[in-house]
């Protein structure tokens, strides 16, 4: 028995009710009331996201996946199970209002009692009579999310009270990740409580993060040092850059949303060892004012390392976010004869609005620069759906896998792990769960969505040739749960078969075909 991950599911508990009995009607309520009241979620919804209602077997699989991750001794069987769930996750939202339980269309005005809320969550007495508390906690979270989505504040508050008794930032991985989601639900609920009559927020309704920029940077560095998630992205991007940079004697890297210089020491060492000699290297980092001091300190070390290796390195910092107006040859001071590389590590998703217009404009601006290569590293998850409940389901499963991997890599009482979870992942979860409109910036998407968007913008994927290097990098972490896969040119890093990170490299069509 491995904690909450191998808990048997009690057969007498009808665990599909938490989603199936009233999920379609609640999502429809969200569409009509939540979006209409806040007027922040845009109306665009890609046609390929419309699906049929959830089947009972799919719901069973979703719940089972939280508790039976370690049941399969056969690695292939486990991977196959995760791939099946990956397909299910892609069809979570938007939900149809047609209900597979009642067989007809639910009425918009149906009450929570009419929809069977009272039967959804087992009582504490039921739990004590054989239903596992971990399963009970997952159902509480799902049902609370539905209540919040319906703006039933009384029911949501009641469920949150029960949830607080079962979660802890110091418990096992399920308790810790549930604590983060409960905080997100609490924050979203506070926005509902503070809505004005016209649907706008009152002053002070939005929570202000108490996490400092320095704490966020420290958590990012710890994540890079203790897990392969960030290092994997840096390694894949650097390998793609070096592959295309062969024979070129002057390189210019535009780093979108730069966080420190953690990616570049390895790149500089690789470029310095080229048989044809080291190239001239220019790096332009687009960042924000908050991390300038930390960035300047790491820049000094990087410049010293480059000089010692015989590389002529020039570094420029632009304190601004990447926008189409900024991404011009004049503003970036591009020079003739330079091979241009655009590098984005966990940044482009911030512009993936539901309408796609913002991301499309940035990709078009990048294409106009004529880059030799565009490298994109992102979290492989669908956290950008227009409906709250769908995002909640997807993100709960995704971050449960992440927290499980952290527990396998770091002791439960590890201060490093606590900082990573509280100062990095908890912030992401809260943004996904509690925010809407321009306030919601953690809009992660799947590899297939990135292929679609980049393809439409005029880029084509370039296959990686670094699978052996990636396997060697993973061996350093001494943990058997990490998995690697290649999918249509993208490299995927996962945990127990569940993709967590993706890395991809792209070339402008007319460049790659010439």
TrEMBL record:
Keywords: Nucleus, Transcription, Transcription regulation. A motif (LxCxE motif) lies at residues 142-146. It is found in: Nucleus. Residues 220-285 are annotated as: VHIID. Residues 434-507 are annotated as: SAW. One of its GO terms (cellular component) is nucleus. The keyword Kinase does not apply. It comes from the Eukaryota. The keyword Nucleus applies. Pfam families: GRAS. A motif (VHIID) lies at residues 251-255. Its main location: nucleus. Residues 340-431 are annotated as: PFYRE. Belongs to the GRAS family. This is GRAS domain-containing protein. It comes from Cephalotus follicularis. The lineage of its organism: Eukaryota, Viridiplantae, Streptophyta, Embryophyta, Tracheophyta.
């Amino acid at each position: 028995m491995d904690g909450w991950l191998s808990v048997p599911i009690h057969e007498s508990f009808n665990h599909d009710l938490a989603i199936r009995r009233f999920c379609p009607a609640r999502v429809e309520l969200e569409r009509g009331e939540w979006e209409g009241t806040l007027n922040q979620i845009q109306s665009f919804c890609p046609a390929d996201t419309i699906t049929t209602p959830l089947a009972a077997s799919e719901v069973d699989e979703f719940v089972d996946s939280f508790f039976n991750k370690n049941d399969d001794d056969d690695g292939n069987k486990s991977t196959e199970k995760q791939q099946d769930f990956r397909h299910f996750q892609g069809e979570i939202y938007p939900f149809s209002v047609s209900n597979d339980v009642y067989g007809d269309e639910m009425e918009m005005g149906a009450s929570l009692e009419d929809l069977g809320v009272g039967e959804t969550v087992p009582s504490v007495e039921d739990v004590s009579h054989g239903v596992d508390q971990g399963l009970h906690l997952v159902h509480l979270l799902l049902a609370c999310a539905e209540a919040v989505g319906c703006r039933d504040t009384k029911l949501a508050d009641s469920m949150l009270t029960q949830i607080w008794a079962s979660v802890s930032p110091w418990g096992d991985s399920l308790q810790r990740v549930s604590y983060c989601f409960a905080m997100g639900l609490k924050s979203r609920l506070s926005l509902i409580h503070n809505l004005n009559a016209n649907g706008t927020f009152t002053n002070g309704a939005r929570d202000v993060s108490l996490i400092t920029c320095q704490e966020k940077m420290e958590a990012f560095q710890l994540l890079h040092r203790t897990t392969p998630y960030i290092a994997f992205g840096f390694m894949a991007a650097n390998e793609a850059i070096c592959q295309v940079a062969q024979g070129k004697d002057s390189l210019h890297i535009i780093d979108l949303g730069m966080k420190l210089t953690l990616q570049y020491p390895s790149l500089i060492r690789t470029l310095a060892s080229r048989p044809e000699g080291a190239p001239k290297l220019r790096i332009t980092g687009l960042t924000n004012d908050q991390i300038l001091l930390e960035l300047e300190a790491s820049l000094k070390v990087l410049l010293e390392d480059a000089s010692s290796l015989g590389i002529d390195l020039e570094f420029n910092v632009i304190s601004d976010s990447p926008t189409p107006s900024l991404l011009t040859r004049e503003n970036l001071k591009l020079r003739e004869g330079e091979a241009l590389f655009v590098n984005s590590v966990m940044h482009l998703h911030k512009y993936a609005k539901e309408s796609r217009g913002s991301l499309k404009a940035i990709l078009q601006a990048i294409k106009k620069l004529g880059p030799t290569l565009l490298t994109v590293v992102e979290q492989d998850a669908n956290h950008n759906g227009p409906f709250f409940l769908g995002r909640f389901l997807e993100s709960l499963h995704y971050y449960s896998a992440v927290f499980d991997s952290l527990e396998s890599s770091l002791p439960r009482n590890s201060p490093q792990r606590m900082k990573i979870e509280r100062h990095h992942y908890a912030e992401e979860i809260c943004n996904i769960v509690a925010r809407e409109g321009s306030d919601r910036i953690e809009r992660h998407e799947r590899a297939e969505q990135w292929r679609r968007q980049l393809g439409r913008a005029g880029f084509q994927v370039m296959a990686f040739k670094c699978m052996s290097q990636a396997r060697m990098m993973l061996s350093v972490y001494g943990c058997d749960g990490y998995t690697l896969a290649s999918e249509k040119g993208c490299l995927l890093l996962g945990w127990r078969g569940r993709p967590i990170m993706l890395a991809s490299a792209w070339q402008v069509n007319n460049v790659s075909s010439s």
